[in-house]
Amino acid sequence: MIISEVVESDNGSKKYLLSASDSDLRKSVESTFFKHTEQHLPYLCISSQYGCAVGCVFCETGRQKPLGNMTTEQIVQQVLLCREHLLNSGSLGDNQELNTILFAGMGEPMLNLKEISGAVTEFKSQSLANRVTLTSVGIRHTADKLYDLPLDTISISLHATTDEQRDMLIPSKAKFSTKDLLEYFAAYHQNTGVPVIVNYLMLEGINDSQEDLARLKDLVDKDTFIIKLKYLNEVSSIDGIILNPSEEMPAFAKALTEAGFRCISDKSDGTEILGGCGQLKSQIRDIRSKYRIM
């Protein structure tokens, strides 16, 4: 892996473009560094695939054709190269270390768990970060392999309260159904003790009604999961896609909190350099067939 480009925001967030080689620029990924929470803890959001086979309509990576998995060596190199640049630029501060490595960049981690497992082992053995986390839509046929990973947190992408909504937003047939997703990860949490966060991207007119709020309360076990309400980041325009951020997030957050849920309202860092959730893409993209969702 080589770093092809670094873009920095005014607040110190950085977006790295890394390529597997000079000969095929489609085989490139992006990683984002940001300092999250009030403690300004340094996070590195990394990629695990070139493109993505899941095809989430709200995600730049999902709109391009999948071009294969990153290897364990490439995933580790991605972190080492970014870390070296961060150390040289003084971005890691006095502690000189990453707090968290997140598999939440390009690709669906549960479609590349063998290589990710090797990478996580390296991260832990080299003490490259205090914590390693993973975000996934939940892939049925690889789910049991998650038990082999020493994760500190896992986030699951729900984003809907019915299977019809979720199939529209996340068209992959390999994912769990809405109910099965929550049942599986409730058992995973019970068996491992690993905290599980339920991501819910709020979209105007799609999943932000009072009916959705009521279903969300019924679906999610407040004693098991943390709910993270997410804001839609800007993505490129593709004919047929009409997505707008919802203005109902404060009302949802208030209602969920009052009902006893642990709820986070999240707005991505790095969006001003197109490094936020859903904004990462390869240098040269092969766009998959166009979507029509509304």
What can you see in these coordinates?
This protein has a single domain (about 1-275), classed as Aldolase class I (TIM Barrel). About 25% of the residues lie in helices and about 20% in strands. The chain contains six helices and ten strands, in the order E-E-E-E-H-E-H-E-E-H-H-E-H-E-H-E. It has helices spanning about 70-90, 115-125, 165-170, 180-190, 210-220, 250-260; strands at about 1-10, 15-20, 30-35, 40-45, 100-105, 130-135, 155, 195-200, 225-230, 260-265. The chain has a ten-stranded mixed beta sheet with strand order 1-2-3-4-5-6-7-8-9-10, with helices on one face. Helix 1 packs across helix 2 (about 115-125). The protein starts with a strand and ends in a 28-residue tail after the last strand. GO terms for molecular function: 4 iron, 4 sulfur cluster binding; catalytic activity; metal ion binding. Keywords: 4Fe-4S, Iron, Iron-sulfur, Metal-binding, S-adenosyl-L-methionine.
Describe the structure in brief.
Helices cover 25% and strands 22% of the residues. The protein has helices at 72-89, 113-125, 163-169, 178-192, 210-219, 249-258, and strands spanning 2-8, 14-19, 28-36, 41-46, 98-103, 129-136, 153-157, 196-201, 225-230, 262-266. Strands 1-2-3-4-5-6-7-8-9-10 form a ten-stranded mixed sheet, covered by helices on one side.
